[in-house]
Design a protein that fits this description.
Layout: H1 12-37, H2 43-75, H3 81-99, H4 102-125
Membrane topology: Multi-pass membrane protein
GO biological process, one term: mitochondrial electron transport, NADH to ubiquinone
InterPro entries: NDUFA11
Length: about 140
């Protein structure tokens, strides 16, 4: 079962689990590319980098999933794209706290929130990024 198969504002644990797994996968792939691009001095340093990146991305996924679902329940507006902005912003705030930078947190909040907002709007309106054009 995928993320979009579950109704909005329901099964918060299930949605959070899915976004956590997605964040973990993105963290593993991203850390692998980072380790290849910037060779560490030892295997221990490589393991620390991979672990740190993967845990950060998994946590951001969990925060996004839970914040999106809980805001949909609290606001009683399950299909409102603002819920996705709230989830993306919450993930960005965590990233700012993780890096000890208010500017990073603010930028990530606005960037991830806007990206999530337009992802939801695009899903609702049937936008297509790739594929054959419809005539």
């Amino acid at each position: 079962m995928g993320y979009w198969d579950l109704p909005e504002g329901t099964d918060c644990i299930g949605k959070t689990w899915i976004t956590t797994k997605l964040g973990t996968a993105l963290g593993l792939v991203g850390s692998a590319y980072h380790i290849v691009a910037f060779q560490p001095d030892s295997a221990l340093v490589a393991l620390q980098r991979a672990t740190s990146t993967t845990v950060t991305m998994a946590t951001m996924g969990a925060i996004f999933g839970m914040a999106t679902c809980l805001s949909a329940q609290a606001r009683e507006a399950p299909d409102d794209p603002l819920n996705y902005f709230i989830g993306g912003c919450a993930s960005g705030i965590f990233l700012g706290a993780r890096t000890h930078s208010a500017m990073t947190g603010t930028s990530a909040c606005l960037g991830l929130g806007t990206l999530a907002f337009f992802t939801k709007v695009g899903k609702m309106e049937g936008w297509k990024i790739a594929g054959p054009p419809e005539l």
